[in-house]
Amino acid sequence: MLARHLFKKLPHDLYKITLIDPEPRHYYQPGFLFIPFDQMKPEDCYRQKTDYIPKGIQFKHAKASLIKPDENHLLLDDGQEIHYDLLVVATGTRIAPEETPGMLGDDWHKNIFDFYTFEGAMALRDKLRDWEGGKLVVHITETPIKCPVAPLEFAFLSDAYFADKGMRDKVEITYVTPLSGAFTKPIAAEKLGHLLEEKQIQVVTDFSVMEIDNTDKKLISYDGIEVPYDLLVTVPTNLGDPVISDSGLGNDFGFLPVHKNTLQHEKYHNIFSLGDATNAPTSKAGSVAHFQAELLAANIVRYLLELPVQPDFDGHANCFVETGHGKALLLDFNYDTEPVEGTFPIAGIGPMQLLNESRMNHMGKLAFHWIYFHMLLEGKSIPMITPQMQKSGKHLETIHP
Amino acid sequence: MEKLIAGKAVDVNAEGYLTKPEEWTEAIAEEIATQERVGPLGARHWEVLRYLRDQQLKGSALSIRGIGKSGVVDIKTFYELFPNGPLKKASKIAGIPKPASCI
Prior knowledge:
Shape of chain B: globular
CATH class of the largest domain in chain A: Alpha Beta
Radius of gyration of chain A: 21 Å
Strand content of chain B: 5-15%
Radius of gyration of chain B: 13 Å
Structural class of chain B: mainly alpha
Largest interface: A-B, 40 and 29 residues
CATH topology of the largest domain in chain A: FAD/NAD(P)-binding domain
Order of helices and strands of chain A: HEEEEEEEEEEHEHEHEEEEEEHEHEEEEH
Oligomer: heterodimer
Strand content of chain A: 15-25%
Number of helices of chain A: 7
Helix content of chain A: 10-25%
Number of helices of chain B: 5
Number of strands of chain A: 23
Shape of chain A: globular
Strand order of the largest sheet of chain B: 1-2
Structural class of chain A: alpha/beta
Largest sheet of chain B: 2 strands, antiparallel
CATH superfamily of the largest domain in chain A: FAD/NAD(P)-binding domain
Protein backbone atom coordinates (compact mmCIF):
# COMPACT_ATOMS: atom_id res chain seq x y z
CA MET A 1 0.00 0.00 0.00
CA LEU A 2 2.76 2.43 0.98
CA ALA A 3 4.83 1.45 -2.06
CA ARG A 4 1.87 2.28 -4.29
CA HIS A 5 1.32 5.64 -2.62
CA LEU A 6 5.01 6.48 -3.05
CA PHE A 7 5.03 5.24 -6.61
CA LYS A 8 2.28 7.75 -7.37
CA LYS A 9 4.02 10.62 -5.60
CA LEU A 10 7.66 10.24 -6.63
CA PRO A 11 9.25 10.90 -10.05
CA HIS A 12 10.30 7.50 -11.36
CA ASP A 13 13.50 8.71 -12.98
CA LEU A 14 14.85 9.92 -9.61
CA TYR A 15 13.59 7.32 -7.14
CA LYS A 16 13.63 3.55 -7.41
CA ILE A 17 11.31 1.54 -5.15
CA THR A 18 12.16 -2.06 -4.26
CA LEU A 19 9.75 -4.29 -2.36
CA ILE A 20 11.32 -7.22 -0.52
CA ASP A 21 8.91 -9.88 0.67
CA PRO A 22 9.29 -13.61 1.38
CA GLU A 23 5.56 -14.37 1.16
CA PRO A 24 4.02 -14.58 -2.34
CA ARG A 25 0.45 -14.46 -1.02
CA HIS A 26 -1.20 -11.39 0.43
CA TYR A 27 -3.67 -12.61 3.04
CA TYR A 28 -6.89 -10.85 3.96
CA GLN A 29 -6.26 -11.46 7.65
CA PRO A 30 -9.72 -10.41 8.93
CA GLY A 31 -10.88 -13.56 7.13
CA PHE A 32 -8.92 -15.77 9.53
CA LEU A 33 -11.63 -15.04 12.12
CA PHE A 34 -14.36 -16.39 9.81
CA ILE A 35 -12.61 -19.46 8.36
CA PRO A 36 -12.96 -21.58 11.55
CA PHE A 37 -16.74 -21.05 11.50
CA ASP A 38 -17.05 -21.86 7.79
CA GLN A 39 -18.18 -18.30 7.17
CA MET A 40 -15.51 -17.48 4.61
CA LYS A 41 -13.95 -19.67 1.98
CA PRO A 42 -10.20 -20.05 2.38
CA GLU A 43 -9.59 -19.10 -1.26
CA ASP A 44 -11.32 -15.73 -0.66
CA CYS A 45 -8.67 -14.87 1.94
CA TYR A 46 -5.69 -14.30 -0.31
CA ARG A 47 -4.43 -12.90 -3.59
CA GLN A 48 -1.05 -13.08 -5.25
CA LYS A 49 1.02 -10.07 -4.25
CA THR A 50 2.43 -9.63 -7.73
CA ASP A 51 -1.10 -8.81 -8.99
CA TYR A 52 -0.97 -5.61 -6.92
CA ILE A 53 2.54 -4.40 -7.66
CA PRO A 54 2.71 -1.92 -10.54
CA LYS A 55 5.33 -2.31 -13.22
CA GLY A 56 8.10 0.00 -12.17
CA ILE A 57 8.31 -1.23 -8.57
CA GLN A 58 10.94 -3.93 -8.31
CA PHE A 59 9.74 -7.01 -6.40
CA LYS A 60 12.32 -9.25 -4.74
CA HIS A 61 10.99 -12.53 -3.46
CA ALA A 62 13.36 -12.81 -0.49
CA LYS A 63 13.54 -12.35 3.25
CA ALA A 64 15.59 -9.62 4.89
CA SER A 65 17.82 -11.21 7.52
CA LEU A 66 19.84 -8.24 8.80
CA ILE A 67 19.63 -4.46 8.75
CA LYS A 68 22.98 -2.65 8.96
CA PRO A 69 21.74 0.84 9.74
CA ASP A 70 25.18 2.43 10.01
CA GLU A 71 26.05 1.31 6.51
CA ASN A 72 22.56 1.69 4.98
CA HIS A 73 22.72 -1.93 3.94
CA LEU A 74 20.26 -4.77 4.05
CA LEU A 75 21.31 -8.40 4.02
CA LEU A 76 18.91 -10.88 2.39
CA ASP A 77 18.59 -14.57 3.17
CA ASP A 78 19.88 -15.45 -0.30
CA GLY A 79 23.19 -13.81 0.65
CA GLN A 80 22.61 -10.68 -1.39
CA GLU A 81 23.49 -7.37 0.25
CA ILE A 82 21.71 -4.29 -1.00
CA HIS A 83 22.13 -0.59 -0.36
CA TYR A 84 19.25 1.69 0.57
CA ASP A 85 18.92 5.45 0.88
CA LEU A 86 15.66 5.12 2.76
CA LEU A 87 14.28 2.01 4.43
CA VAL A 88 10.69 1.28 5.43
CA VAL A 89 10.24 -1.66 7.81
CA ALA A 90 6.83 -3.25 7.37
CA THR A 91 7.57 -6.74 8.65
CA GLY A 92 4.45 -7.04 10.82
CA THR A 93 4.12 -9.32 13.80
CA ARG A 94 4.11 -13.09 14.12
CA ILE A 95 2.79 -15.54 16.66
CA ALA A 96 5.42 -17.20 18.84
CA PRO A 97 3.78 -20.24 20.49
CA GLU A 98 7.28 -21.50 21.35
CA GLU A 99 7.49 -18.76 24.01
CA THR A 100 5.00 -20.56 26.26
CA PRO A 101 6.08 -23.93 27.68
CA GLY A 102 3.65 -26.63 26.56
CA MET A 103 1.91 -24.64 23.86
CA LEU A 104 3.66 -26.54 21.07
CA GLY A 105 3.14 -29.86 22.86
CA ASP A 106 1.17 -32.91 21.72
CA ASP A 107 -2.08 -30.94 21.73
CA TRP A 108 -0.89 -28.30 19.23
CA HIS A 109 -3.32 -28.27 16.32
CA LYS A 110 -5.11 -31.23 17.94
CA ASN A 111 -6.73 -29.58 20.95
CA ILE A 112 -4.79 -26.29 21.01
CA PHE A 113 -5.19 -23.94 18.06
CA ASP A 114 -4.31 -20.45 16.93
CA PHE A 115 -6.39 -18.56 14.38
CA TYR A 116 -3.78 -15.89 13.57
CA THR A 117 -2.29 -17.92 10.73
CA PHE A 118 -4.00 -19.34 7.66
CA GLU A 119 -2.89 -22.85 8.65
CA GLY A 120 -4.16 -22.41 12.21
CA ALA A 121 -7.55 -21.12 11.07
CA MET A 122 -7.92 -24.04 8.64
CA ALA A 123 -6.95 -26.64 11.25
CA LEU A 124 -9.42 -25.11 13.71
CA ARG A 125 -12.19 -25.16 11.07
CA ASP A 126 -11.67 -28.88 10.61
CA LYS A 127 -11.67 -29.41 14.38
CA LEU A 128 -14.87 -27.41 14.95
CA ARG A 129 -16.76 -29.19 12.17
CA ASP A 130 -17.09 -32.34 14.23
CA TRP A 131 -16.22 -31.26 17.75
CA GLU A 132 -18.79 -32.66 20.14
CA GLY A 133 -18.52 -29.98 22.79
CA GLY A 134 -16.88 -29.49 26.16
CA LYS A 135 -14.80 -26.72 27.65
CA LEU A 136 -13.82 -24.14 25.02
CA VAL A 137 -11.20 -21.71 26.33
CA VAL A 138 -10.41 -18.57 24.32
CA HIS A 139 -7.11 -17.26 25.59
CA ILE A 140 -4.73 -14.32 25.19
CA THR A 141 -1.18 -15.16 26.25
CA GLU A 142 0.07 -11.61 26.69
CA THR A 143 -0.32 -8.17 25.17
CA PRO A 144 0.28 -6.41 22.83
CA ILE A 145 -1.36 -8.57 20.16
CA LYS A 146 -2.48 -7.98 16.63
CA CYS A 147 -6.16 -7.07 16.41
CA PRO A 148 -6.84 -6.93 20.18
CA VAL A 149 -10.58 -7.48 19.68
CA ALA A 150 -10.21 -10.67 17.61
CA PRO A 151 -10.23 -13.10 20.58
CA LEU A 152 -13.36 -11.44 21.94
CA GLU A 153 -14.97 -11.72 18.51
CA PHE A 154 -13.93 -15.37 18.43
CA ALA A 155 -15.77 -15.95 21.73
CA PHE A 156 -18.90 -14.14 20.46
CA LEU A 157 -18.90 -15.99 17.14
CA SER A 158 -18.39 -19.32 18.94
CA ASP A 159 -21.51 -18.66 21.00
CA ALA A 160 -23.54 -18.04 17.82
CA TYR A 161 -21.91 -20.90 15.91
CA PHE A 162 -22.72 -23.54 18.54
CA ALA A 163 -26.22 -22.11 19.06
CA ASP A 164 -26.85 -22.44 15.30
CA LYS A 165 -25.61 -26.03 15.44
CA GLY A 166 -28.06 -26.72 18.25
CA MET A 167 -25.31 -27.62 20.72
CA ARG A 168 -24.73 -24.42 22.71
CA ASP A 169 -25.70 -26.29 25.90
CA LYS A 170 -22.84 -28.72 25.31
CA VAL A 171 -20.20 -25.98 25.18
CA GLU A 172 -18.83 -24.01 28.10
CA ILE A 173 -17.05 -20.88 26.83
CA THR A 174 -14.37 -19.22 28.98
CA TYR A 175 -12.45 -16.10 27.98
CA VAL A 176 -9.02 -15.87 29.65
CA THR A 177 -7.12 -12.58 29.55
CA PRO A 178 -3.94 -11.19 31.14
CA LEU A 179 -5.68 -7.81 31.42
CA SER A 180 -8.05 -6.65 34.14
CA GLY A 181 -11.17 -7.45 32.10
CA ALA A 182 -12.53 -8.38 28.69
CA PHE A 183 -13.23 -4.66 28.34
CA THR A 184 -10.62 -2.35 29.81
CA LYS A 185 -11.83 1.06 28.65
CA PRO A 186 -14.43 2.63 30.95
CA ILE A 187 -17.07 3.50 28.33
CA ALA A 188 -16.76 0.21 26.45
CA ALA A 189 -16.91 -1.70 29.73
CA GLU A 190 -20.07 0.14 30.74
CA LYS A 191 -21.80 -0.18 27.35
CA LEU A 192 -20.70 -3.68 26.39
CA GLY A 193 -20.10 -5.57 29.63
CA HIS A 194 -23.58 -7.08 29.38
CA LEU A 195 -22.72 -8.91 26.14
CA LEU A 196 -20.59 -11.46 27.95
CA GLU A 197 -23.30 -12.27 30.45
CA GLU A 198 -25.98 -12.48 27.76
CA LYS A 199 -23.87 -14.86 25.75
CA GLN A 200 -22.94 -16.88 28.84
CA ILE A 201 -19.22 -16.39 28.41
CA GLN A 202 -17.22 -16.82 31.61
CA VAL A 203 -14.28 -14.45 32.05
CA VAL A 204 -11.00 -15.12 33.87
CA THR A 205 -8.96 -11.92 34.29
CA ASP A 206 -5.36 -11.06 35.28
CA PHE A 207 -4.28 -14.49 34.11
CA SER A 208 -0.65 -14.72 32.96
CA VAL A 209 0.01 -18.19 31.66
CA MET A 210 3.20 -19.86 32.84
CA GLU A 211 2.70 -23.21 31.10
CA ILE A 212 0.18 -25.46 29.44
CA ASP A 213 -0.25 -28.99 30.75
CA ASN A 214 -1.15 -31.14 27.72
CA THR A 215 -1.72 -34.29 29.78
CA ASP A 216 -4.26 -32.89 32.22
CA LYS A 217 -5.39 -30.28 29.68
CA LYS A 218 -5.08 -27.10 31.67
CA LEU A 219 -3.52 -23.66 31.59
CA ILE A 220 -1.44 -22.85 34.67
CA SER A 221 -0.70 -19.24 35.67
CA TYR A 222 2.35 -17.86 37.47
CA ASP A 223 0.30 -17.59 40.65
CA GLY A 224 -0.87 -21.20 40.44
CA ILE A 225 -4.40 -20.71 39.08
CA GLU A 226 -5.53 -23.47 36.72
CA VAL A 227 -8.01 -23.27 33.85
CA PRO A 228 -9.02 -26.63 32.34
CA TYR A 229 -9.79 -26.93 28.61
CA ASP A 230 -11.01 -29.51 26.15
CA LEU A 231 -10.42 -27.15 23.24
CA LEU A 232 -8.01 -24.25 23.67
CA VAL A 233 -8.06 -21.41 21.15
CA THR A 234 -5.11 -19.24 22.06
CA VAL A 235 -3.48 -16.09 20.83
CA PRO A 236 0.20 -16.85 21.43
CA THR A 237 2.74 -14.16 22.30
CA ASN A 238 3.12 -11.76 19.39
CA LEU A 239 6.66 -10.82 18.43
CA GLY A 240 8.21 -8.67 15.75
CA ASP A 241 10.15 -10.13 12.86
CA PRO A 242 13.57 -11.55 13.83
CA VAL A 243 15.26 -9.15 11.39
CA ILE A 244 14.52 -6.30 13.83
CA SER A 245 15.88 -7.99 16.96
CA ASP A 246 18.77 -9.68 15.12
CA SER A 247 19.84 -6.23 13.96
CA GLY A 248 19.77 -4.98 17.56
CA LEU A 249 16.94 -2.57 16.80
CA GLY A 250 14.00 -4.13 18.69
CA ASN A 251 12.29 -3.62 22.03
CA ASP A 252 11.44 -6.56 24.37
CA PHE A 253 8.95 -7.88 21.83
CA GLY A 254 11.15 -7.28 18.79
CA PHE A 255 9.10 -4.32 17.58
CA LEU A 256 10.85 -1.31 16.08
CA PRO A 257 10.78 1.82 18.22
CA VAL A 258 9.70 4.81 16.14
CA HIS A 259 8.27 8.23 16.94
CA LYS A 260 4.58 7.56 17.49
CA ASN A 261 3.41 10.52 15.37
CA THR A 262 6.02 10.69 12.59
CA LEU A 263 6.81 6.94 12.37
CA GLN A 264 10.47 7.83 11.94
CA HIS A 265 13.23 5.96 13.79
CA GLU A 266 14.57 8.15 16.60
CA LYS A 267 18.25 7.53 15.81
CA TYR A 268 18.38 6.48 12.16
CA HIS A 269 16.35 9.14 10.41
CA ASN A 270 16.31 7.31 7.08
CA ILE A 271 14.44 4.39 8.64
CA PHE A 272 10.65 4.54 8.92
CA SER A 273 8.14 1.89 9.90
CA LEU A 274 4.41 1.23 9.83
CA GLY A 275 1.82 -1.36 10.72
CA ASP A 276 2.32 -4.12 13.27
CA ALA A 277 6.13 -3.86 13.12
CA THR A 278 6.31 -0.64 15.18
CA ASN A 279 6.11 -0.08 18.91
CA ALA A 280 3.54 2.73 18.41
CA PRO A 281 1.09 2.53 21.33
CA THR A 282 -2.01 2.13 19.20
CA SER A 283 -3.75 -1.09 18.16
CA LYS A 284 -1.97 -3.45 15.83
CA ALA A 285 -4.78 -3.36 13.30
CA GLY A 286 -5.17 -3.28 9.54
CA SER A 287 -6.91 0.09 9.64
CA VAL A 288 -3.92 1.56 11.48
CA ALA A 289 -1.53 0.38 8.77
CA HIS A 290 -3.81 1.84 6.12
CA PHE A 291 -4.08 5.25 7.83
CA GLN A 292 -0.35 5.26 8.51
CA ALA A 293 0.44 4.42 4.88
CA GLU A 294 -1.32 7.57 3.64
CA LEU A 295 0.40 9.83 6.17
CA LEU A 296 3.79 8.15 6.01
CA ALA A 297 3.93 8.50 2.22
CA ALA A 298 3.62 12.26 2.69
CA ASN A 299 6.30 12.26 5.39
CA ILE A 300 8.70 10.24 3.26
CA VAL A 301 8.28 12.72 0.42
CA ARG A 302 9.04 15.55 2.89
CA TYR A 303 12.11 13.72 4.11
CA LEU A 304 13.38 13.19 0.57
CA LEU A 305 12.87 16.89 -0.16
CA GLU A 306 14.78 17.70 3.06
CA LEU A 307 11.68 19.24 4.66
CA PRO A 308 10.80 18.51 8.30
CA VAL A 309 8.62 15.44 8.82
CA GLN A 310 5.20 16.15 10.36
CA PRO A 311 3.73 14.51 13.50
CA ASP A 312 0.52 13.70 11.64
CA PHE A 313 -0.32 10.19 12.80
CA ASP A 314 -2.68 10.40 15.77
CA GLY A 315 -3.02 6.68 16.52
CA HIS A 316 -6.29 6.46 14.56
CA ALA A 317 -7.84 2.97 14.39
CA ASN A 318 -11.22 1.91 13.06
CA CYS A 319 -12.29 -1.62 13.90
CA PHE A 320 -15.34 -3.75 13.45
CA VAL A 321 -16.13 -6.18 16.24
CA GLU A 322 -18.29 -9.11 15.19
CA THR A 323 -20.72 -10.02 17.96
CA GLY A 324 -22.45 -12.94 16.22
CA HIS A 325 -25.93 -13.49 14.73
CA GLY A 326 -25.25 -11.01 11.89
CA LYS A 327 -24.43 -8.08 14.12
CA ALA A 328 -21.27 -6.11 14.81
CA LEU A 329 -19.91 -3.17 16.75
CA LEU A 330 -17.78 -0.43 15.28
CA LEU A 331 -14.95 1.33 17.12
CA ASP A 332 -13.17 4.52 16.06
CA PHE A 333 -10.45 5.87 18.33
CA ASN A 334 -6.91 7.26 18.55
CA TYR A 335 -4.07 7.79 21.05
CA ASP A 336 -6.09 10.30 23.07
CA THR A 337 -9.72 9.32 22.59
CA GLU A 338 -11.11 6.01 23.77
CA PRO A 339 -13.96 4.39 21.77
CA VAL A 340 -17.25 6.23 22.41
CA GLU A 341 -20.78 6.08 21.02
CA GLY A 342 -21.73 8.04 17.93
CA THR A 343 -22.32 7.82 14.20
CA PHE A 344 -19.84 6.99 11.44
CA PRO A 345 -18.62 8.06 8.94
CA ILE A 346 -21.14 10.93 8.57
CA ALA A 347 -21.67 12.83 11.82
CA GLY A 348 -25.29 12.58 13.02
CA ILE A 349 -26.30 10.25 10.18
CA GLY A 350 -24.09 7.20 10.10
CA PRO A 351 -25.16 4.87 8.62
CA MET A 352 -22.93 2.98 11.01
CA GLN A 353 -23.23 3.17 14.78
CA LEU A 354 -20.18 3.49 17.00
CA LEU A 355 -19.94 1.26 20.06
CA ASN A 356 -23.43 -0.21 19.52
CA GLU A 357 -24.41 -3.53 18.02
CA SER A 358 -26.09 -3.27 14.63
CA ARG A 359 -26.70 -5.23 11.44
CA MET A 360 -25.43 -2.28 9.38
CA ASN A 361 -22.04 -2.54 11.11
CA HIS A 362 -21.89 -6.23 10.18
CA MET A 363 -22.74 -5.35 6.56
CA GLY A 364 -19.92 -2.81 6.73
CA LYS A 365 -17.49 -5.51 7.79
CA LEU A 366 -18.59 -7.77 4.93
CA ALA A 367 -18.34 -4.93 2.41
CA PHE A 368 -14.85 -4.20 3.66
CA HIS A 369 -13.61 -7.44 2.11
CA TRP A 370 -14.32 -5.99 -1.35
CA ILE A 371 -12.99 -2.55 -0.43
CA TYR A 372 -9.78 -4.14 0.82
CA PHE A 373 -8.88 -5.89 -2.41
CA HIS A 374 -10.29 -3.33 -4.85
CA MET A 375 -9.40 -0.05 -3.17
CA LEU A 376 -6.90 -0.29 -0.31
CA LEU A 377 -4.43 -2.63 -1.98
CA GLU A 378 -4.73 -0.53 -5.12
CA GLY A 379 -3.56 2.47 -3.07
CA LYS A 380 -6.92 4.27 -3.28
CA SER A 381 -8.45 6.11 -0.32
CA ILE A 382 -11.92 5.21 0.97
CA PRO A 383 -14.28 8.19 0.52
CA MET A 384 -15.16 9.93 3.84
CA ILE A 385 -12.71 7.83 5.87
CA THR A 386 -9.88 10.14 6.88
CA PRO A 387 -6.47 8.97 8.10
CA GLN A 388 -6.84 11.15 11.18
CA MET A 389 -9.70 10.55 13.60
CA GLN A 390 -12.71 12.86 13.26
CA LYS A 391 -14.24 14.17 16.46
CA SER A 392 -17.57 15.10 14.88
CA GLY A 393 -20.29 12.49 15.31
CA LYS A 394 -18.76 11.20 18.54
CA HIS A 395 -20.24 11.53 22.02
CA LEU A 396 -17.01 12.78 23.54
CA GLU A 397 -18.79 14.32 26.51
CA THR A 398 -19.24 10.81 27.92
CA ILE A 399 -15.50 10.44 28.57
CA HIS A 400 -14.80 10.78 32.27
CA PRO A 401 -11.91 13.14 32.92
CA MET B 1 -11.30 13.87 39.07
CA GLU B 2 -9.24 15.31 41.88
CA LYS B 3 -8.36 13.23 44.92
CA LEU B 4 -6.28 13.83 48.02
CA ILE B 5 -3.62 11.14 48.37
CA ALA B 6 -0.91 11.40 51.04
CA GLY B 7 -1.88 15.02 51.54
CA LYS B 8 -1.51 15.97 47.89
CA ALA B 9 -4.34 16.78 45.44
CA VAL B 10 -3.81 14.69 42.30
CA ASP B 11 -5.84 13.81 39.22
CA VAL B 12 -7.12 10.24 39.12
CA ASN B 13 -9.49 8.30 36.86
CA ALA B 14 -12.59 6.42 37.98
CA GLU B 15 -10.49 3.41 39.02
CA GLY B 16 -8.05 5.48 41.07
CA TYR B 17 -5.13 5.49 38.62
CA LEU B 18 -3.15 8.73 38.41
CA THR B 19 -3.82 10.43 35.09
CA LYS B 20 -0.72 12.65 35.33
CA PRO B 21 2.29 10.44 36.16
CA GLU B 22 4.32 13.59 36.93
CA GLU B 23 2.13 14.22 40.00
CA TRP B 24 3.33 10.98 41.57
CA THR B 25 5.44 10.99 44.73
CA GLU B 26 6.85 8.19 46.84
CA ALA B 27 4.39 9.07 49.61
CA ILE B 28 1.54 8.60 47.13
CA ALA B 29 2.96 5.20 46.20
CA GLU B 30 3.05 4.19 49.87
CA GLU B 31 -0.56 5.20 50.41
CA ILE B 32 -1.91 3.45 47.27
CA ALA B 33 0.11 0.34 48.18
CA THR B 34 -1.57 0.22 51.58
CA GLN B 35 -5.02 0.53 49.96
CA GLU B 36 -4.13 -2.26 47.53
CA ARG B 37 -2.86 -4.46 50.37
CA VAL B 38 0.66 -4.48 48.98
CA GLY B 39 3.76 -3.94 51.02
CA PRO B 40 5.11 -2.35 53.10
CA LEU B 41 7.17 -1.26 50.11
CA GLY B 42 10.74 -2.55 50.30
CA ALA B 43 13.80 -2.14 48.11
CA ARG B 44 12.58 -4.77 45.60
CA HIS B 45 9.21 -3.06 45.24
CA TRP B 46 10.89 0.28 44.55
CA GLU B 47 13.15 -1.26 41.90
CA VAL B 48 10.10 -2.58 40.08
CA LEU B 49 8.16 0.68 40.44
CA ARG B 50 11.06 2.75 39.09
CA TYR B 51 11.50 0.34 36.18
CA LEU B 52 7.80 0.57 35.31
CA ARG B 53 7.88 4.37 35.41
CA ASP B 54 10.99 4.45 33.20
CA GLN B 55 9.34 2.15 30.66
CA GLN B 56 6.18 4.22 30.67
CA LEU B 57 8.17 7.43 30.08
CA LYS B 58 9.82 5.74 27.10
CA GLY B 59 6.39 4.91 25.75
CA SER B 60 6.92 1.14 25.97
CA ALA B 61 3.94 -1.14 26.52
CA LEU B 62 4.08 -2.80 29.93
CA SER B 63 3.86 -6.56 30.06
CA ILE B 64 4.66 -9.43 32.35
CA ARG B 65 7.10 -10.65 29.71
CA GLY B 66 8.92 -7.30 29.62
CA ILE B 67 9.32 -7.37 33.38
CA GLY B 68 10.56 -10.96 33.31
CA LYS B 69 13.18 -10.06 30.70
CA SER B 70 14.16 -6.78 32.34
CA GLY B 71 16.54 -8.35 34.82
CA VAL B 72 14.93 -6.25 37.55
CA VAL B 73 12.84 -9.08 38.92
CA ASP B 74 11.74 -12.52 37.75
CA ILE B 75 8.06 -13.16 37.15
CA LYS B 76 7.55 -15.37 40.21
CA THR B 77 9.00 -12.67 42.46
CA PHE B 78 6.92 -10.00 40.72
CA TYR B 79 3.82 -11.99 41.71
CA GLU B 80 5.08 -12.35 45.27
CA LEU B 81 5.77 -8.62 45.54
CA PHE B 82 2.42 -7.55 44.05
CA PRO B 83 -0.04 -10.43 44.57
CA ASN B 84 -3.36 -10.74 42.68
CA GLY B 85 -2.93 -8.97 39.36
CA PRO B 86 0.62 -7.64 39.75
CA LEU B 87 0.70 -5.57 36.58
CA LYS B 88 -2.43 -3.58 37.34
CA LYS B 89 -1.49 -3.15 41.01
CA ALA B 90 2.12 -2.19 40.35
CA SER B 91 1.01 0.31 37.67
CA LYS B 92 -1.44 1.89 40.07
CA ILE B 93 1.20 2.24 42.79
CA ALA B 94 3.72 3.55 40.24
CA GLY B 95 1.27 6.26 39.18
CA ILE B 96 1.02 5.17 35.55
CA PRO B 97 -1.90 3.88 33.43
CA LYS B 98 -2.72 0.20 33.68
CA PRO B 99 -2.07 -1.95 30.61
CA ALA B 100 -5.26 -1.90 28.55
CA SER B 101 -6.78 -3.08 25.33
CA CYS B 102 -8.45 -0.81 22.77
CA ILE B 103 -11.91 -1.38 24.28
